[in-house]
Specification:
- The structure is a single chain.
- The chain is built from four helices and ten strands.
- By secondary structure, it is of the alpha/beta class.
- The two termini are about 20 Å apart.
- The relative contact order is 0.21.
- It has a five-stranded mixed beta sheet, with no helix packed on it. Strands 4-5-6-8-7 form a five-stranded mixed beta sheet.
Length: about 160
């Protein structure tokens, strides 16, 4: 199973160039996860996958916050993936969000706009970076591959 992952789009809807690029990168994925700071719910409609799941982030407005949870657990092929946006300083963010979940195999988070693909103990901590390229970082997304375990790949847009 392949899962497309993005975060921090910070737009009300995807512009045509970004929508085309995401369609290329996420072609054939089984699911897309958005780790918050969409800014507009239409972003989820602009993503093409059999299933799209998201959480809200600190920059999301009232409607998005009312429509999406702050965190959730997604179960795929016997594995559990925690999905959360994150908060506070980018320093130590992975360590701050990990305790929000118990017994998950992977935690997907955003907020820092910085890609992160490392294990803390037995848990894969995965931040795809920002699809919207802000704070001086290049835009990036990610792919999680679920097979005998979960592995992540960061993809620069």
């Amino acid at each position: 199973m392949r899962i497309g992952v993005l975060s921090d789009t910070h737009v009300h809807s995807l512009d045509s160039a970004l929508a085309r690029r995401l369609a290329e990168v996420f072609a054939g994925v089984d699911m897309i996860l958005h780790a918050g700071d969409l800014t507009g719910l239409k972003v989820l409609d602009d993503l093409a996958a059999p299933q799209v799941m998201a959480v809200c982030g600190n920059m999301d407005g009232y409607l998005t916050r009312q429509s999406l949870p702050v965190k959730r657990v997604i179960r795929v092929e016997g594995f559990a993936i925690g999905l959360i946006h994150g908060w506070g300083s980018p320093a130590g963010l992975a360590e701050r969000v990990l305790p929000e979940f118990s017994g998950v195999d992977c935690v997907v988070f955003g907020h820092s706009h910085a890609p992160f693909n490392q294990r803390l103990g037995s848990t894969l901590m995965f931040n795809p970076g920002s699809a919207g390229a802000s704070r001086g970082a290049s835009p990036s997304v990610g792919i999680l591959t679920v097979d005998k375990g979960i592995t992540g790949e960061i993809i620069n847009l």
